[in-house]
Amino acid sequence: MAENRDLWVFAYGSLMWRPGFAFEDVMHARLTGWQRSFCIYSRYHRGSERSVGLVLGLDRGGACEGMAFRVKASDAAATLAYLREREQVISVYREALVPVTLMTPERPEVMALAFLVERAHPSYAGRLPLVEQANLIRGATGRSGSNIDYLVSTLAHLKELGIRERAIERLVGLVGAHVAHGAGADPAHPRALALIQGCRRRSARVRPLKPEDLRRFAYRTVLGAR
Fold first, then answer.
1. Average predicted confidence (pLDDT) for the chain
2. What secondary structure does DSSP assign to 53-64, as a single string?
3. Number of CB atoms found within 10 A of residue 83's CB
4. What domains are there in the chain, each with its CATH number?
5. Helices 166-175 and 147-160: angle between axes, nearest 10 degrees
6. Which residues pair with 66 in a beta bridge?
7. Model confidence over 170-210: pLDDT tens digits?
8. Is 135 helix (H, G, I), strand (E, B) or coil?
């Protein structure tokens, strides 16, 4: 990437409402060929080795509406370092430049940085049935809070941004009607605790990550050191 060129970043999950980096512009954008999916086992932030959770990734197929952030060239190196530290804790993503359409009347296309799920990684869950996704999410809590809270927060923020995600709406419905109305978003809420304890016993057993997994899947950069 040229030294004097701005950096575009495509966001599809928490980066949309909590980017954590300085940017010049942000626009509604669409990425074709990749879709937002609960396809990554979470052992740290929203789950544990004992009861894994599920978090979002960009998986192949379909399309994804999100946000595109434009970072000025002078801030690109710091932004890149920050994103790699935030997104690549277990190297489950592959860094890529992808063509993104900005949803303005002119529909221009820009090349944006995106973190795509690495399907060969042990933490890739694949396309689990919604019922199985719901069971995992109900029973998981990690360092950043309950998986239920992550799910409900994701749906709420997508709605605020005017992005409709029917699969996530159905998933919230399966997790529980009271959760859909916010009662289960607090992990200390009695109903949420009952869900977590009850579903933890049915949680999928996933192979633990080994140090060699992290070395093997160390992320491949597409943007050189700046």
1. 84
2. EEEEEEEEEEEE
3. 22
4. 7-201 (3.10.490.10)
5. 140
6. 29
7. 999 998 754 544 444 444 455 555 554 554 444 455 666 66
8. helix
Q: Which two tokens stand for residue 113?
A: 């940085």
* Whole-number Å distance between alpha carbons of 41 and 50: 12
Rounded distance between C-alpha atoms, residue 45 and residue 54, angstroms: 10
Rounded to whole angstroms, the Cα distance separating 66 from 115 reads 13
Model pLDDT for residues 130-147, shown as the tens digit of each residue: 999 999 998 899 988 899
Give per-residue pLDDT as tens, 76-87. Answer: 999 999 999 998
CA-based max dimension of the chain: 54
pLDDT of residue 44: 85
Q: Which two tokens stand for residue 37?
A: 């999916």
Q: CA-CA distance, 167 to 36, in Å (whole number)?
A: 10
> 117 pairs with which residues across the strands?
93
- Cα gap 16→56, rounded to integer Å: 13
